[in-house]
């Protein structure tokens, strides 16, 4: 329970929820061949990449959720800076995937990569079990957007679904994105939710070598 003396604060955040595509299939495949350590190492390297990117990207790592993360960015960050960070993250992951994970898979899933959901707005900071936690609609919407990318999309990897107001706030170019409608579970007004879908431009060089700042 939260003590009455503990602070409760509302903060404006840009919320990014991202997840590893086909994580269950990858995990089960690696488990079946005794290569589960490779999956653990993948998560550790992703964590290290995020930790080393916090200062450059003005980013806060809020929570790890088994195969994905919730990231916070300040409300003043530019769309260009945000998408640059997501592209660099995607590039790092793709290199690691191709170099360290794919060679170990017996049955490579059709969909591999990362998917992202983005919203912005007020989140409420509370303390639970002596740790800061956040609640609020932007967290729920970002998670639902990430989960909805695969709907009617056979190649969802490295794509981002933005709420329309977050897309406008970030001043992103509408010519680079597509207006789509998705169904968001357990979101008020989410039956036919209009959002903006952006495909990150992953350089071809990211699809080969595993060389990076993390070795």
Compact summary:
The protein contains 5 helices and 8 strands; from the N terminus they run βααββαββαβαββ. It is of the alpha+beta class.
Give your account of this protein's structure:
The chain has about 220 residues and is an alpha+beta fold. The chain has one domain (about 10-205): Nucleotide cyclase, GGDEF domain (Alpha-Beta Plaits, 2-Layer Sandwich), CATH 3.30.70.1230. It is about 35% helix and about 30% strand. The chain has helices at about 25-30, 35-55, 80-100, 135-150, 165-170; strands at about 10-20, 60-65, 70-75, 115-130, 130-135, 160-165, 175-180, 195-200. The longest helix has 23 residues, at about 80-100. The chain is globular. Residues about 210-215 have low confidence and may be disordered.
SSE ordering? EHHEEHEEHEHEE
Structural class: alpha+beta
Please state the average pLDDT score.
Answer: 90
Profile the largest sheet.
8 strands, mixed
Helix content: 25-40%
Pick out the low-confidence regions. 209-215
Number of strands: 8
Looking at CATH, which topology would you report?
Alpha-Beta Plaits
- DSSP strand (E) fraction? 25-35%
What is the CATH superfamily?
A: Nucleotide cyclase, GGDEF domain
Overall domain count? 1
DSSP helical segment count: 5
Query: Outline, from the CA principal axes?
Result: globular
């Amino acid at each position: 329970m939260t003590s009455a003396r503990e602070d409760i604060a509302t903060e404006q955040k840009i919320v990014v929820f991202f997840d590893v595509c086909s994580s269950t299939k990858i995990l089960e495949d690696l488990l079946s061949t005794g290569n589960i350590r490779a999956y653990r190492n993948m998560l550790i390297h992703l964590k290290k990449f995020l930790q080393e990117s916090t200062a450059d990207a003005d980013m806060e790592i809020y929570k790890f959720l088994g195969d994905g993360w919730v990231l916070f960015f300040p409300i003043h960050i530019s769309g260009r800076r945000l998408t640059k960070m997501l592209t660099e993250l995607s590039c790092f992951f793709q290199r690691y995937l191709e170099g360290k994970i794919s060679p170990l898979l017996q049955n490579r899933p059709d969909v591999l990569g990362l998917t992202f959901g983005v919203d912005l707005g007020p989140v409420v900071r509370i303390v639970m079990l002596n740790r800061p936690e956040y609640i609020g609609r932007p967290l729920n919407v970002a998670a639902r957007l990430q989960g909805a990318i695969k709907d009617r999309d056979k190649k969802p990897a490295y794509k981002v679904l933005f709420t329309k107001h977050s897309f406008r706030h970030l001043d992103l170019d509408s010519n680079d994105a597509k207006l789509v409608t998705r169904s968001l579970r357990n979101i008020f007004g989410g039956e036919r939710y209009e959002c903006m879908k952006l495909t990150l431009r992953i350089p071809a060089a990211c699809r080969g070598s595993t060389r990076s700042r993390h070795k």
